[in-house]
Amino acid sequence: MTVPASVGTGAAARPATPDPVLIVGAGPVGLVLACELLRRGVQPRVVDRAPGQVQGRPSKAILVWPRTLELVHGSGIAEEMTGSGHLLDGVRFYSDGRPLGAVHLTRLADTPYTNILMLPQWKTEQILLARLHALGGAVEWNTELVSVREEPDRAVAVLRRLDGAEETVRVPWLVGADGAHSTVRKLIGVPFNVTSPNATFAVGDCPVDGDLDERVLHYFYSRNGAMGVGPLGDRVFRFAVNIGPDEKPVRELFQAALDRRTGRTETFGRVGDPVWTAVFTVRCAVAGRFRAGRVFLVGDAAHVLSPAGGQGMNTGIQDAVNLAWKLAGVQLGRFRAQLLDSYDRERREAVAQVSASTSMQTRWGLIRTPAKAAARDALVRCAAATGVLQRGLAPLFSQTDLYYGPQRGSRFGRMWRYPQAVVGGRLPYLARLAGTAGGDGLMPALVLSRAGAEPARWSALRRRLLADLPADLPVIELDGAARSQDPTAALADLLGSKPAALLVRPDGHISAVAEAHAPEPIYAALQDLLAPAGVLGTAK
């Protein structure tokens, strides 16, 4: 991939930069990536064309789901985020005012974060910026990317500052975290495949004087259209109402929607003047590639999802965490360079899964045909009555069901058919378990299950692995201090009663599962991961 770029006579060339990663874009995704790199010993350079972070700025991204909090726990900001926002217990569905069912995140057994966090994007960015500065990083505001091209061992970018001065930067890696209209994506010639818009929504943050529940996210289906209502705290609610071409996001629109789309004879309350409004058209798009040589795309630069379910920013943060540990390990010479090829493959599949579910939510909310609406309502009620709604949608919404292994049927099917630890699955509570083992957040962790009914075989496995594996590999023994970090016994249920060992990636996904009599999968996974200087010798 080579994009011709004219530097110009005024460009100030710099032969090399001490910062091995250039991140273009200082939104939540770019900032998470920077923090994740810094805590692993890689210094990124972060630039953004904006003049700075604006406190109090309203934004569309307000929902933070449990898996996102798990992933940023390692950077030390999860608790600060939960303490800065409004916590919800779950999601409730209605059709023409009649309750259809509810999904309770408080019943999630395999994560320490059992709420939906309502947190304005500007607050998320504020917390991330503070953490970035604490880690020794910074953002260069008023700095835009002008051009980029690739050389065999580096990316060459031209940056322009507010005063017009240009700088040529040569870096091993460049990451575009610059949003849906990504300059990086356009400069490297990656297509953005956009699906046709199918709905327009009015969005507004409005105070409501009434009895609208502030502990749940509300989805109202009705013959008059769909509406989502999310509590922001202090009796202010985020409204999302699908509208026609001539309708405007004014107080009267949101009041009428609350009166007519909830199906109640009495209103939930009086809607006050909006503190912020916007209109947007549902637009889904996916980049043709998430990696082009030494350039990567993350967040909205790589994909734009339907806003139903509020998964866009969360999915972007998952991109950042997935890429960060791999990029850090390769840059530091610890991991094989081929590892970076997995970023596109893993995240593309994950985005496809999330996109399918959010698009389905959008389509279900826009059903107007009575027969189809009746079928939808019957299906949701049946799923709620049988527990399928809770079991299926709680992990789906929270994104704790994400799976990076060999495909084994549908996303929902895996929840029922593969409850045990499998390669690619997520290990519950890893973020907190890792605190019992030390480590720098770069190397994968060796998780040793309980001895169970086979203590002799368990002891032999433990001795062999601890003798053979790298000394800096964090070890988590579930018979030790880590037991207190599994309060719901989710790990015990997942691992079963037989002694086993797992190799778990820094992002909490399982790389290998080995039974006591056959530890070879652990060795094989490490052979694939570690750079030649750190590759294991022949297993004993």
Automatic annotation (TrEMBL):
Presence of keyword Ribonucleoprotein:
no
- Superkingdom, taxonomy of origin: Bacteria
Query: Does Flavoprotein appear among the keywords?
Result: yes
One Pfam family recorded for the sequence: FAD_binding_3
Tell me the Gene3D superfamilies matching this sequence.
3.30.70.2450, 3.40.30.120, FAD/NAD(P)-binding domain
Q: Name one GO molecular function term.
A: FAD binding
Q: Which cofactor does it need?
A: FAD
Give the UniProt keywords, A-Z. Answer: FAD, Flavoprotein, Monooxygenase, Oxidoreductase
Q: Which residues does the UniProt record annotate as the domain FAD-binding?
A: 20-355
Check the record and name the PANTHER family matching this protein.
BINDING MONOOXYGENASE, PUTATIVE (JCVI)-RELATED, TRK SYSTEM POTASSIUM UPTAKE PROTEIN
Q: What is this protein called?
A: FAD-dependent monooxygenase
Task: Supply the source organism for this entry.
Answer: Actinocrinis puniceicyclus
Query: Top-down, what is the taxonomic lineage of the species of origin?
Result: Bacteria, Bacillati, Actinomycetota, Actinomycetes, Catenulisporales
